[in-house]
């Protein structure tokens, strides 16, 4: 069937509200938000029911037409951008944004995949519950994308990745069948846990249409500590102390270097050096609890007092107001934007066994500098999860296309070192198109073989998001 | 190859310390601890390295000999008991009981599958950490069995199932290849999360040889509440209040009926009615924290005071001493043993959406009584996870073999009702042999088909724990 006949069959079955076929209207759907990838498609389909998703995929399966699922288009690896085949169908679930139920006894939220994450967080808060998944893009990313990339974010140290929040899934498989796994059960040991395959599969095993998520108690009492550290090693010991003493209250433990702060201050108005002295590194710790601000504050002040006395940090400030909480967080949150404003750069989203972060940072730093003098290492991340955004900005004065020539070589330096320390080349961003080559280079061949076989089980004709991951 | 030639090849490759072939020595390995199932085997293999496990399985794969993995033999569904084929090889990892590492910065414990769970808990406690998996059999069950059945236990309401504790796995696949997934990373989004398939697979996809587990902060401060409730509905509202107020401190929320207490008091010395009046139901709540007993106690007393005032419970006692903690827990923990002492009975380990427990209990109770007057319903469980042990004891005066005639019919009543409420027929015990028939009756055919295909990918010759799950 040619493209126009196939597009017509989509229109016939799903109606004009659900199918876009005009090239001008398709155009905005063809690239990722950073503009790194651009592909082609014959149609964009925007169904508003699970049955219509199934109808669309069944048609595509019959005609062997590739399906490229797309969420809020906030991904960093091109996982939701079509390749250059002209017959691609982009499948967006943005019209499926119903919250099907919220249960404050079972503490579950059942929502459709097109829901904006921030809306779900607010819906939970409205009934005095917490949906703990929180990330920079939360007001534009969609739940389906969060699930398909197993999104991380700032509270993983306490609540785990997206995977840990999922109790059940509804999905359409690559042959158009509906997987009815939308349970809200906390315990269900009846065979293999199939939903786990769909989480983090980047749309290669089917399209998630809805999920049942765990909710937690709301933590309205919150205290932030900003601490200065002389070294990553010192940050480790501070982490250890906080973990022991504050137990489950610690919900973020972020790290960034002096170079990150310099870049933020250079690119952002209204912020200033956090301490009188400039320190090699900084740690931002967020603690939160359901009740009793005074006890939380006493606990934090006692622990930080001990940390200063035992020289587990060089300086520290405890937030006294919401304004302080916000300005402390801004120092951390503005890093990505400041680096973008500074110009082209290279992102590495890696993870490591936490205890090996200092040795890793020392050795990779040495390798990078040996390769390229003057390169600026902008290192920050979710230290408490072992997750570093080990980013590089070009040497001052280097041309804007610096990384076109040097990027691959520098990335190899970083990732080789990650593997030497038993780390992961993609902590929370996934593989998509961007890291496909690295995936095949670094992942155990046995794992890749098993993944290929599983993918073939689910999708014998290879129509689901072809070219992504592997 | 006949059995004796094959057993000889195992002996030749693995040595006499690792291979048992004498029928008298094999005999104790052929049944489950309750004596419900009994099978046959030509040999028991007890390797002490992962390479030897791989050698054993590769030999079995080549000769198409079935492999039956066995942990501490504490399972309740016959999942580790061989069938009646004479060529079965039982594979026990009890000699692989090394703790490979404990890391108090990354908060991970890497241990071999033959480790006794209780020993791992003590090893974690020794370095001021908590391994939160806790269950009645913890001093005899093995980690490999816990992983393969995705064990639950009493602290799931706070820490999740075994699955939630696993960061990495090492396993031998059904062709003898070693799966090297023993990472300690908190974040790793590089393709499908293959280890999730092995967790809860009851040894059908390979043999887990070691795991990397999450550790938590130690909660040395602990307060128990025993509350009397007029109905399961009241227990629900009490749960809701505790969840909101105590946040992550609540680590157990157990429920049992007056009939459970009667049975415990009839069969056990040294315990007495917990309150002056007999109440229809009881709830045992455990709260724990890292620090500050006084604050935890104040919090609990305030919340329980409010619960009494709002009539969310009929009576309540807060533990004042370790002795009280222990005697409160004993009331709950002795139920299984009391029911065993009372005579033959029928176990149902089911789960439900938490909010539907009261309606479920009312309707299934009515069905059961209609089917069989005088039947004793011994209902208890991990209410905060929606997990009920909906057990039945025979009518007073009924013959010991009562359930041989009536068991299947009564089980069908319970499980039909579980499905009607969107529950699970096996919350935490798994399927094994015991629930195979119910699995095929109640599980979605699409799920079963996908599981069959995945099993075939991993184990094309069907040698791993045949006859288990499906």
Automatic annotation (TrEMBL), chains A, B:
PROSITE patterns: FAD_PCMH. Keywords: FAD, Flavoprotein. Pfam families: FAD-oxidase_C, FAD_binding_4. SUPFAM superfamilies: FAD-binding/transporter-associated domain-like (SSF56176), FAD-linked oxidases, C-terminal domain (SSF55103). InterPro entries: FAD-bd_oxidored_4_C, FAD-bd_PCMH, FAD-bd_PCMH-like_sf, FAD-bd_PCMH_sub1, FAD-bd_PCMH_sub2, FAD-linked_Oxase-like_C, FAD-oxidored/transferase_4, Oxid_FAD_bind_N. Residues 37-218 form the FAD-binding PCMH-type domain. One of its GO terms (biological process) is respiratory electron transport chain. Belongs to the FAD-binding oxidoreductase/transferase type 4 family. This is Hydroxyacid dehydrogenase. The lineage of its organism: Bacteria, Pseudomonadati, Pseudomonadota, Betaproteobacteria, Burkholderiales.
């Amino acid at each position: 069937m040619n493209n126009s006949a196939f597009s017509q069959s989509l229109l016939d079955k799903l109606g004009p509200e659900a199918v876009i076929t005009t090239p001008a209207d398709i155009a905005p759907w063809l690239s990722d938000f950073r503009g790194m990838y651009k592909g082609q498609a014959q149609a964009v389909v925007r169904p508003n029911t699970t049955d219509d998703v199934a109808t669309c995929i069944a048609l595509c399966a019959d005609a062997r037409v590739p399906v490229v699922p797309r969420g809020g288009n906030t991904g960093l690896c091109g996982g939701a951008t079509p390749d250059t085949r002209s017959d691609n169908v982009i499948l967006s679930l943005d019209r499926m944004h119903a919250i099907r139920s919220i249960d404050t006894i079972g503490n579950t939220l059942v929502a459709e995949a097109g829901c904006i994450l921030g809306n779900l967080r607010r819906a939970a808060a409205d009934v005095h519950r917490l949906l703990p998944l929180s990330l920079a893009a939360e007001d534009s990313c969609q739940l389906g994308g969060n699930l398909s990339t197993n999104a991380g974010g700032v509270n993983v140290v306490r609540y785990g990745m997206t995977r840990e929040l999922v109790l059940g899934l509804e999905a359409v498989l690559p042959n158009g069948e509906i997987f009815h796994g939308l349970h809200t059960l906390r315990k269900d040991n009846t065979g293999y846990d199939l939903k786990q395959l769909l989480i983090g599969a980047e749309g290669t095993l089917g399209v998630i249409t809805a999920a049942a998520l765990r909710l937690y108690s709301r933590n309205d009492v919150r205290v932030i500590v900003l601490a200065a550290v002389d070294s990553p090693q010192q940050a480790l010991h501070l982490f250890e102390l906080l973990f022991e003493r504050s137990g489950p209250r610690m919900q973020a433990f972020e790290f960034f270097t002096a170079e990150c702060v310099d870049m933020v201050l250079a690119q952002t108005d209204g912020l200033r050096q956090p301490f009188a002295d400039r320190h090699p590194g900084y740690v931002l710790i967020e603690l939160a609890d359901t009740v009793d601000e005074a006890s939380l504050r006493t606990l934090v002040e006692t622990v930080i007092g001990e940390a200063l006395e035992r020289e587990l940090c060089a300086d520290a400030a405890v937030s006294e107001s919401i304004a302080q909480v916000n300005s402390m967080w801004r120092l951390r949150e503005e890093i990505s934007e400041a680096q973008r404003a500074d110009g082209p750069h290279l992102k590495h989203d890696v993870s490591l066994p936490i205890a090996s972060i200092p040795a890793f940072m020392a050795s990779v730093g040495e390798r990078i500098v040996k390769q390229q003098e003057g390169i600026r290492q902008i290192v920050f991340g979710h230290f408490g999860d072992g997750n570093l955004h080990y980013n590089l900005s070009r040497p001052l004065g280097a041309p804007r296309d610096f990384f076109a020539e040097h990027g691959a070589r520098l990335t190899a330096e970083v990732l080789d070192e990650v593997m030497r320390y038993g780390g992961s080349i993609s902590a929370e961003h996934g593989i998509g198109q961007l890291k496909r080559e690295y995936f095949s280079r670094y992942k155990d061949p046995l794992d890749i073989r098993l993944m290929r076989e599983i993918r073939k089980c689910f999708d014998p004709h290879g129509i689901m998001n072809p070219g992504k991951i592997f």
